[in-house]
Design a protein that fits this description.
This protein is α+β, with helices and mostly antiparallel strands and 107 residues long. Helix content is 36%, strand content 23%. The protein contains four helices and four strands, in the order αβαββαβα. Strands 2-3-1-4 form a four-stranded antiparallel beta sheet.
Length: 107
């Protein structure tokens, strides 16, 4: 049997998850080109997000999340309008994914 603790809060438990996955707490920093910046700025994507504007219209989007699997898919959806700069492990995962896609589309 499963017994829920009286002080359990699903919101608190999931507060740093991007959506529903959980994992190690990680700082993620993404540079969005100006073509995507307006779209990113008009939505609150996460409770702890921070946005820094650059003079050229690009922005830096920083968020602390538990696990990077979900945010990886999200950022890849922006194609060449987004570049992960932190953590390096996520940046490398995306590079491997792009290399695999390149092989598929080079046939």
């Amino acid at each position: 049997r499963f017994k829920i603790q009286k002080n359990y809060s699903a919101k608190e438990y999931m507060k740093n998850s991007w959506n529903v996955f959980r994992g190690e707490g990680t700082k993620v920093r993404i540079i969005f080109k100006k073509e995507a910046a307006g779209f990113i700025k008009e939505t609150k994507w996460h409770e702890n997000q921070q946005i820094e504007d650059f003079p050229n219209g690009d922005i830096a989007f920083t968020v602390y999340v538990n696990g990077t699997a979900e945010i990886k898919s999200w950022v890849m959806g922006f194609g060449n309008k987004a570049k992960v700069v932190e953590p390096v492990s996520l940046k490398e995962e995306i590079k491997r994914e792009i290399e695999a896609l390149n092989l598929i589309y080079s046939e």
